[in-house]
Amino acid sequence: MPQAKDHVYLDYNAGAPLRPGARECMVEVLSDVGNASSVHTDGRRARARIEAARDQVASLCKTRTRAVTFVSGGTEANMTALTPNWQDQGAPYYLDRLLRGATEHPSVVAGGRFPASQQEVIPVEANGVIRLDVLKDMLAVGGPALVSVMAANNETGVISPLAEIGAMVARAGGFFHVDAVQAAGRMDIDMDAWQADAISLSAHKFGGPQGAGALVVRSTARVPAPLMLGGGQENWRRAGTENMAAIVGFGVAAASAEKEALDWARLAGLRDRLEAGVREICPAVTIFGEEAPRLANTSCFAAPGISAETALIAFDLERMSLSSGSACSSGKVSVSHVLTAMGADEATARCALRVSLGWNSQDADIDRFLEVWPQIVDRLNPEARNRAA
Ligand code: PLP
């Protein structure tokens, strides 16, 4: 069902609306017959469509087409990368440790194919940024490590110092994986500057369809062992017939996202106006990661005594969709591991709301939020208006 006009969608980090261009191409492709692995005309047409999408995704990542392997989404891309078994220059290479950030997405926290005994956590500063001093010490001891750090956090938008991390990992002879699911289309993707061996992408965060993603490698000579076996698709890196319509939509969305770099300043303006308005009503609000580099589209804040769970229901009744913490953890009342790692106490973490914007966000969305916010504060905790910062 298309979104109603009076519905305000502020949850792009959970999933962005499908871009019209992506939808049109997907609908067209759904009428096609043919498996991209077949040699007949229909198969070759399917293959051409997939390869065109591969070009578009590679271009978003400023890399070569062959670097892109299509998978079912960010979770599968992460799961594929997080393996002790890699190939390096044609020879098997075994990594016996996984070092991952404390605020990673649950699909990285799960550790992929590393046994629990080989997983270590890199702590973050109070602003959400990786502790580089600790990472340096961790890299100085032990065997070859795979380091996995997200480009930008899904809950707070905090951006990691990837070039510094990549240089440290390279000096230590480790491999570097970056979960760029929230970053793609929202900040510059530069695998060379990051010295990232592999990055994960997901189409539905920037206007592509759900259920499509990619693992992109910097060099096809250094690749993780495939997760899915049993077929030669994707150059033997991911077995199984490709989800052609989703891949085509992914490509079109990537091409649109690539053209939008100037829109980031517009989104930052919307986000800043929202945060100023929230703070005007509740001076004691905590804005997580405020002092760190952040994505332009994300704001995560907690106003004292305004339970996120209750506020979300109140916003929903006003036909407004936002989130508390990550989408994967909403629905169950657990405290965000991201905010906990940043040192937030439980009471504050339970008040954390996340607003995330994207390609179709408008001034009117922020106007409406700022109209409803004071009403919600007055209903849930009028005291929050009087509490000084
Ligand atoms: N990584 C991050 C940082 C995410 O935010 C998400 C989804 O929210 C994922 C990975 C998983 O992506 P997908 O939903 O495509 O499996």
Query: Which stretches are low in confidence, meaning pLDDT under 50 for 5 or more residues running?
Result: none
Q: Overall 3D geometry?
A: globular
Bound molecules: pyridoxal-5'-phosphate
Strand content: 15-25%
Extended strand count: 15
Largest sheet descriptor: 7 strands, mixed
What share of residues is helical?
25-40%
Please state the CA-atom Rg, rounded to the nearest Å: 21 Å
Strands of the largest sheet, in order across it? Answer: 2-10-9-8-7-5-6
What's this entry about, in short?
This protein has 389 residues and is α/β, with parallel strands linked by helices.
Task: List the defining traits of the structure above.
389 residues, alpha/beta, seven-stranded mixed beta sheet, 15 helices, globular, binds pyridoxal-5'-phosphate
